[in-house]
Amino acid sequence: MGTSLLRRSHTGVIPTPAGLELADIADETIRALGRLGTPRPHIQLGVPRGTRSTVLTTLLSKFGADVEFVQLDTAKSFAALRHGDVHAAAVRGPVADHGDDDAGLRVSLLDEVPLGVLVGSNSPLASRTAVTARDLAGHRLCWFDERRAPLYAESIERWCGRHGWQPALVVMDPGGAGLHDDALRRHPDLVALRPADEMHGEGVSWLPLADPPTEQIYLIEASARRRS
Length: 228
Prior knowledge:
Layout: E1 6-9, E2 12-15, H1 17-37, E3 43-47, H2 53-63, E4 67-71, H3 74-82, E5 88-92, E6 105-120, E7 140-143, H4 150-162, E8 169-171, H5 177-186, E9 190-195, E10 204-207, E11 214-222, H6 224-227
Parallel strand pairs: 3-4, 3-5, 7-8, 7-9
Antiparallel strand pairs: 1-2, 5-11, 6-9, 6-10, 6-11
């Protein structure tokens, strides 16, 4: 190249200024190649139990394929965000106002769908094409541990009260679609409130409900300032 990179001295061979400059460039090149080979960090995203596949798809579209879903109860989501345990969280609404604790958090409605009635094939409602709250009189309701999403539980209970239905609550927690479906098939007086697109097994039918309650899914995101 016509440039001397090394020179002899009384202590041996040492790099020239040009040699030192070339060594710095080589070091930076090696570090850059190393960064290219390092996997991008996952975006940890909290989601509650039973999150529908359509919601997960929406979240993947928004955050990309590097999302790592973490099971997180709605009631614990704000604390997890404040502590930096997750980058964002999907929660079941309604969402409470946490005052100054919400500083640096963004809340947006991600999805809202009406709930219908899930019944077993031996239910007296199974032959219906639609039901009203009055039709649900005398039926028990599949329920969950209210501590996981207390405001969502309150919203459903208020809807029941407004429509004159006071069902006995059958807590199945932790449950899962399979256990709920089995319980519905075995107990004709048991119903569940679910979105239409939620997966369910054979021997279980979904019926639209007049003036239904809704399931709201909110996205809570930490601002860039909070994440840094």
